[in-house]
Amino acid sequence: MEVLTLINKVRGFEGKLPAKVKENQPLEQYSGKTPAELKRMLRTMLTARRVEREEKLLLRKGYNRFFIGCGGKELIDVAWADNLRKNDPFFGYYRNKAFDLHRGSTLWDKMLEAIGDARAHNKGMQIPAHPGYPDMAVLPQASPTGSHAIEASGTAEAVGYPIPVSMQSHIPGGAFPQDAITLCSLGEGSTSEAEFARAVFYSVFFKTKAIYAIYNCGWAISVSVEEQFPEGDPTTPYEGFQRFGLKIMQVDGTDVKDSLAKVAEAVEYARSGKGPVLLNIRTTREGSHSGSDDQSFYMDPVEQDWHTYNDCILKTCNTFIEDGIITPKEIGDIWDELDKEITALSAKAVASFQPKTTDLIKGLVYAYDFGKAKETWKKFRAASKVDRVAKYKEYHEKGYFTTPELPEHVGPMTMRFAINYTLFDLLGLTDDALMFGEDVADFSGHMIEDREKQAKLKGKGGVFLVSKNLQREFGNHRCFNTPLDEIGILGRAVGHCYQGRRPLPEIQFLDYMSPAYQILKDKIATTYQRSGGLFTMPMVIRTTYGGYKQGAGAFWHSEGNLGTWMNIPGLLIAVPSNAYDAAGLLKTAWASDDPVLFCESVALYNRRDWEGVPMETPIPDIDELIPFGVAKVYNEEHTDVGIITYGATLQMARKAGEILKEKGIHARIVDLRTVKPMDEEAIIRTAKECGKVLVVTEDRFPGGAAATIASIITGGEALFHLEAPVKLLTAIDARVAYGMDGDAACLPTTDKIVAAVEELHDKY
After folding, report:
1. Domain ranges of the chain
2. pLDDT tens per residue across span 739-748
3. Which candidate among 240, 422, 436, 615 keeps its CA 20 to 30 Å from the CA of 670?
4. What positions does the domain Transketolase-like pyrimidine-binding occupy (predicted)?
């Protein structure tokens, strides 16, 4: 129903007015709420609807570029906001304007968000109705439907986690108390997404204090709920989980008494720790899905009428009037007051509009700053009470390491040992560091607690033994196995970040990151920008990548497609080629405030040399971090040809350099170490000083890293110093075939590098 029509209907109430109820008298039929509290709730509902009207007006005037309404959801929104604590985290979607307002967001906030003003909390980064307010425990919202449910489940687990957050955290002591309830609201269409199903599963499995409130208006744009679930009820697939503590409830979100009673019941149940709650809440849709939709094109007129006459605001107003809580005149006066205030604020916002600049937007994509990362590291180190000398002697006695020496004093080692040592240091530094993923633990199931049996077994510690002995030493709350569920792994990592920890989730192979692509691209990597810099996501996603596994990798274990992940704003990518860089970069990654994809080449884990070229290196001192975006240059004095690469192909380039030197060709070799950011200065300098450049990557050419490197060279002054076209040696445009011949046919090799350099050198 159009809101002005609704207000006129209320003003013209024709029934007999009862005696007024005392303002502070708790009313049993309203779950103990007083008239004063109920009036405040109604005022918020009217405010949300008036803001929605203003957004429509701004759209017509050209000041607002997008509109999506909350009409029909205001009652259930204020019921939640009034019954939850202000430090209960809320994961909403784009229909929760009334919740935000009732929890404390201002009309000025909403006007700035409506026009995308740079002064808004989110700096105008998102379309309206996508806020984030850290001081009100409203987590930053996003449009990919249903995906916030997995963030909510991860947060509910992280909030109730038995390990406290340190005072050195980016959120000292943790964002939310351990008994906090995590509320996730979403539309019925969103519950068809895989993330929602996994979210409910995890909340049941861990018995977290989570509530999933499904606002069921019956329509996902133009798709009826009847085409999505049996009986049109999104809770039906989860009825079996009731055996394990899940409470399923049916709520009339158009009826104030039922809504208040059911919400109070749900909050009490979740807070008790008995299990999560799943609610199917019948709501209306007062207006089409968004400004670009017209539901009259596809909705039965009879159903349209049902939505109109069951408008929660209209019904609540009439119920309150009939029960003596408020009069029609009072409601009209509230509306007139809101109308005047919002009209004025809207005009003020438009008149003083502050546009977003390119620099503002670019500055909100990455929080990374090496100086800040070093300060974060120093802060944790200063607070650490660990005697590392004594600890490593103890580790040696337990059989974890072959020497009692500190890692930095052990001498040259393989990359696997360097990462294992660094993970020991990180988990020993603070309880804020958690590691989890498939197979990362030493033991699982009942073996976790059976120390006697553990002592007789080697333990798993990762499929490549990189996390060996971490669980054995630090316990199952610090290093643990997860289900084979990449979405779930990263969803849990998100929750720990929001609570204040710095997790180290592992995705076993880059090839299998795909199921988690959306949460990584649309949620994790966008957090800093879409929240206007109010929230960060400091996690290190460790993963193996690439081929050269003696032919065993093939299609499903050889992906080196870093270009796919480089194309995600907000995600940093490190690709170490040796022990020294792996240890130094991993510490920097952990101390950074951005998500980092830390790519570890399986081919390099245990190699002591590459075709005779020594690879083992010492690792840096505990307090030495390696900055991102700073390349390492080999043979910098050589200028015949420059070879730019990273990861496993760096070692091939070094071998190729030795062969070429014997042929009288002196090659400079640049190891980028990180591909996001790239060391553009080193790339350009190499092009200028060498004149001939070969770029070598395991990535394929289309959309790959090599093309990006080449464009850095050719896109500026370096182009005029070139003596030959930039030559690219990449994986062929195919998945890697099986066997040693498959690796050799599909990927760069030392021989191919030598041949490519010779062609560059001799032809030009």
Report:
1. 3-166+179-354, 377-614, 632-763
2. 999 999 999 9
3. 422
4. 413-607
